[in-house]
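Justification of computing resources. Each target in the renewal requires a structure prediction run like the one illustrated here; the chain below, 116 residues long, is used simply to show the kind of job we budget for.
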Amino acid sequence: DVQLQASGGGLVQAGGSLSLSCVASGFTFNQYVMGWFRQAPGAEREFVAAINWNGGSTHYAASVKGRFTISRDNDKNTLDLQMNQLRPEDTAVYFCMSTVDGTPYFGQGTQVTVSS
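Resulting structure tokens:
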């Protein structure tokens, strides 16, 4: 079974930093694009960032570009998201995800709360 286990969330003041990590299992990690999504209270789930199979190509939502960095370690089957210059509007549950053989999978999510 595909499993995506995110961790690293917490409470931080505006302007601070957090690092999220996701451990993947149940599929050949180094063959798939990986991504981060987030969902704020009362809002739709939205795209944050994505990275291709070998880390050579990344893509970011306009709202996080220049502040967040996505990376992966194919030896450890892990996906990371370094979040800097955090803002209150970054408050959300963050999910790692991948589409494996046509099926989208989301991890259980980790809460990030940014206080003003």
